[in-house]
Amino acid sequence: MNWILPEGVSLGFEGLSTPLRIVRGLGGGTQGQVYEVDLEGERLALKWYLPACIARDPALERRLGESIRATAPSEDFLWPIALLRPSPASRPLIRLREESFGYLMPLRPASFVGAGEHAAGRLTIGLREVLRACFFLADAFHALHLAGLCYKDVSLGNLFLEPGSGRILICDNDNVAVDGSGQGAVLGTPGFMAPEVLLGQARPGADSDLFSLAVLLFRLLTRHDPLKGQMELAIRCLDEPARRRLYGEDPVFIFDPVDFRNRPDPIEHAAALITWPIYPRPLQALFEQTFCRGLKQPSRRTLTGQWKQELARTLDLRVLCGGCGQENFQTTGASQLCWSCGTPLAEGITLILPRGTVLAAPDNELHPHHFDPLAGEDLRRPIGRVVAHPRDARRLGLHNLSAEAWSAERADGRAVRVEPGASCSLAGVTRIETSAGTVAVQSRSGPGPAA
Amino acid sequence: MPFPDVKLANRPLHFLYLCDCSGSMAASGKMQALNQAIRQSLPGMAAVARDNPEARVLVRAVSFADHAAWHIERPTPVDHLEWRDLQAGGLTAMGEALRLVAAALQTPPMEVRALPPVLVLISDGQPTDDFAGGLEALLRLPWGQKAVRLAIALGHDADLEVLQRFIGGEPEAEAGRSPRRPLQASNATSLAQYIQWASTAVVGAASMPASRVAETPLGPPAGNIPLPDLPPTVLDPTDDVGPLVW
Predict the structure, then answer these.
(1) What is the CATH classification number for the domain harbouring A87?
(2) What percentage of chain B reaches a pLDDT higher than 70?
(3) Same domain, A125 and A226
(4) Which of A54, A83, A106 lies at the terminal end of a domain, its last residue?
(5) Model pLDDT for residues A353-402, shown as the tens digit of each residue
């Protein structure tokens, strides 16, 4: 890589009182280069633009300035902190003839990896963590859209995941603008772009973000493209005109309930056929909403709030198969077989909450939104977590993550105090009083683990 | 429990170098510079291939001098690629090289479904055989027409007109450097930059769509793949004596 900024050198910038040390180059693309930098002992990232990128996007500097003043909608964005132009003394050290600038942002921790790694099947990650990542993504866009902003260029390339936690980071926030302002040159990335943007009928905005968000969620959940089915197989050379047909002129969802033209091929598109049936019907319906009617009618697309609600509910339905241990999402009613090994899923313990139901499986959590009708879905501050007994994994308990003691009522009427940080067995308990509200413990009939 | 063990469906992306190994390439270290440039570009190319799960990047190379021959005949995944040095000596059988590539782009052996192939022709001189016939054989094939064709001219003796015919129609409006014109490498540094650009930015653009800006024509594009910006002219801080100019 030919680095534009000299590695290991301290450079002065206008508006910064102390010089910034360029620690090392991290990477580069067609827009610019990203460096790890040190500002008075704090490690940050610096993106420096190539002159061609600046020339193409005259509103870039103004847009960045507006974003910096607006501050990040949530902690999941690697948001611009400051716009940097070289001081006169640093100018000769920058290896470009043309004037250029960059911006400072938080440095991505090493535990976060590119979402493309998941798409390529190279990441060890659980279904719970993928669903959590999807929730955090919907949540981040919810906050962005509520702030009146739009992102415009959602794709796998600007999303990072922490496989162990499902936490996300969104980078490349330099296209963010006020929705409807029409500012900025970016249109999006083919495959993620809404059809009306790809065909040049609309500028990117919050409605097209909703399409791109649905594509990204689908790709995270299925490791497949929502519009690549039989119609993709009919394409010999997958080039620009072909992508325009597939994603713009005649897009058909591979699981469209009425249009069967683009069903996945059993061999070429096996990923979609294996993963799609794992998810509960209400979640699938949100994809149909965006990829069927919402293809042509942007206002009908699934909203960020709907995604948040349904993704949170799906996590509440998570159970582990008694046969293979694989994660399943158990809907009430009909008996259900494990998607992985075919074993019938046992009916276990259900936690009935004022605002929802959580199936008892290790790592499933109770959140404030399960109790408070005014609290929006949020996974960041759980008040309780289902845990397996350290010596007998079949015995489940509820771990008190809140700051106040709970009172667990046993079947014989006696009450047990559960201190913060302690767990109470769910066996033989009928209800738990928490400071947030009541948890009714219901053991469902059937050949489940001994309750 | 792990996510189901499934992978994104992918398509092959064939990347072919066509390297001039005529006697003149021995002069001024051009042959060594080309060998070095390609070898140095491989890690970056492997990284791009890794980042594009929708593509299976497969590399081949043809060398041409008195005759054309496969230097790397088997389509090789880029992370398995070992670049053996090319040797200079002989004439410039460019037409024969194009015929060799044309035979490889016929279906079969070429897959029915693929991403657009990328062909990179590197030359410092003029063809000494039937170039027009070779080009015609290539462009007669659907995959030859669909291929992203790039050319790098080494030094001042390269036949720019021939290279332009290989690329296809010259861009009208654009002035100055354009990926749809032969890229003129006048020293080892610029050669390495162009090789790196072709093997990373262009491979990326051909395999996975990149972010689009308004100025990128979304209507009928100039080519079947929007080519990325050429590498910026980065001023070389160690440029005291000036690199060897061909």
Answers:
(1) 3.30.200.20
(2) 86
(3) yes
(4) A106
(5) 999 999 999 999 999 999 999 999 999 999 999 999 989 988 999 999 99
Range of the domain at A61: 10-106
Domains and CATH numbers, chain B: 11-170+177-207 (3.40.50.410)
* B2 to A126: CB separation less than 8 angstroms, yes or no: yes
Looking at the 3D structure of chain A, how many domains does it have?
A: 3
Alpha-carbon gap, residue A188 to B34, rounded angstroms: 36
Q: Compute the half-sphere exposure of residue A256: CA atoms within 13 Å on the CB side of its CA.
A: 19
Beta carbons of A361 and A319 less than 8 angstroms apart: yes
Hunting for tokens 């827009």 — which residue is that?
A: A31
Closest Cβ opposite residue B53 in set A2, A51, A116: A116
Give the tokens for residue B208: 């996975």
Q: Is residue A322 part of a domain?
A: no
A116/B235 touch (CB, cutoff 8 Å), yes or no: no
Phi, psi of A10 (to 5 degrees): -90, 130
Is A278 in the B-facing interface, judged by CB distances under 8 Å? yes
User: How many C-beta atoms lie closer than 10 Å to residue B85's C-beta?
Assistant: 12
In terms of domains, do A69 and A130 share one?
no
What tokens does A218 get? 């689908």
Query: pLDDT tens across B52-92, in order?
Result: 888 999 999 999 999 999 999 999 999 999 999 999 999 99
Nearest chain B residue to A224, by CA = B8
- CATH code, domain with A415: 2.60.200.20
- Nearest C-alpha in B relative to A232: B113
- Distance CA(A213)–CA(A193), nearest Å, equals 10
